[in-house]
Amino acid sequence: MVLYGARGLTDRSQSRALLAQAAAEHWGLSPLPEIARQSGGKPYFPQREDCCFNLSHSGGLALCALDGESVGVDIQVVRGWRPALPRRVCSWPELDWLERQPSLWPAFTQLWALKESRVKESGQGLTVSIRGIRIPLPGEGSAQRDGLWFGTYTGPGWAAAVCGHTPPPEEIIWLD
């Protein structure tokens, strides 16, 4: 698994350019193969099922995960959410973890990115309640849950997560 990121994006369509550059650099795929969508909306290369990817963007940031197996990635700009949202979407252990964090919204954003990455890895969309999406609590390094690997990443004003079948990288390769 490898993660590529881009900063300073001004348009959502630029995340496709990140995918093209990452696929060319990592797999030697140029031009970018045709992209189709599974029934749940997850993008894939129909002619290259050995090359799995996932994209996410938020604000001026984009993240692209590449792997040989199904992978999901999410990046979120940290912002203030509705105060009642954590109680609606977090399990009791997640709420307990949130209460121990020094700053609510960066911590909540990390949980949200983990949940999004798991949903995106499955490709099935939100078929269960958000509270029921099983993730490891954020910590140091990567973690496993239910046979999947999770990695978390943070930077100034953002949080990200990846979920897949292989161990996540320690670093994001920034292409900006």
Main features:
four-stranded antiparallel sheet, 176 residues, four-stranded mixed sheet, alpha+beta, 10 strands
SSE order: EHEEEEEHHHEEEE
What Rg do the Cα atoms give?
A: 16 Å
Low-confidence stretches: none
Strand percentage lies at 25-35%
What is the residue-mean pLDDT, rounded to a whole number?
94
Within the largest sheet, what's the order of strands? Answer: 4-5-1-10
Biggest sheet statistics: 4 strands, mixed
Helix content: 25-40%
Q: Quick one: how many beta strands?
A: 10
Q: What is the general shape? A: globular
The CA-CA distance between the termini, in Å, is 20 Å
Tally of helical runs: 4
Structural class by secondary-structure content: alpha+beta
Lay out the secondary structure.
Blueprint lengths: L1 E5 L7 H14 L8 E2 L5 E2 L7 E7 L2 E7 L3 E7 L7 H5 L2 H8 L4 H19 L20 E3 L2 E8 L2 E7 L8 E2 L2
Explain what the structure shows.
By secondary structure, the chain is an alpha+beta fold. It has helices spanning 14-27, 85-89, 92-99, 104-122; strands spanning 2-6, 36-37, 43-44, 52-58, 61-67, 71-77, 143-145, 148-155, 158-164, 173-174. The chain has a four-stranded mixed sheet, with helices on one face. A four-stranded antiparallel sheet has the order 6-9-8-7, with helices on one face. It has a two-stranded antiparallel sheet with strand order 2-3.
